[in-house]
């Protein structure tokens, strides 16, 4: 490799690191905003019963917080590992990443809607639509990077499942929960845990190998 090629390669790596740092910052803000949907009950300081009831009423908000934290956290892990194996990029890749982040920062809003009105179909559908968009753009991000040869050859086989089987599985579960929500919002919400449970062992194995 010539000195000029080495300089260009080093510059690309630095720019990729900037993309990763920006993404980390956006996801950190999104995951922090989730807790703002949780409010301490206002009760008399001596009223233990009222406090207990107030905390129990936070159940739907805590449910929305837990699943949203898990989803954003999982995508942060995936994106962190994805950035680590990138060896190139272009403007379109950055734009797809921005669209992906645009949907990620909608998750706290969708989580608040779900926490307040989780028993209603429109709330579950809103949340499912946002997560379908997040999952879809994540698949596009990985597929485009692989098609353009931006992923290091040694890591391409590890990234491919996220652009195929596992990626489309996630999209399918969230998209499939939309019509399910019309029948039972709670059933749709429970189905989202399949994504977390199905993918966690896979992520663990990949991390161990890495």
Total strands: 0
How would you describe the shape? elongated
Instruction: Give the fraction of residues assigned to helices.
Output: over 70%
Total number of helices: 10
The overall average pLDDT, rounded, is: 83
What structural class is derived from the secondary structure elements?
mainly alpha
> Largest beta sheet, briefly?
none
The helix/strand order is HHHHHHHHHH
How far is it from the N-terminal to the C-terminal residue, by CA?
27 Å
Total individual domains:
1
DSSP strand content: under 5%
**Rg, Å, rounded:** 20 Å
As residue ranges, the low-confidence spans are 1-9, 200-210
Describe the structure.
By secondary structure, this protein is an all-alpha fold. It has one domain. Helices cover 82% and strands 0% of the residues. It contains ten helices and no strands. Helix 1 runs parallel beside helix 4. The longest helix is centred in the N-terminal third of the chain and has 31 residues. The two termini are 27 Å apart.
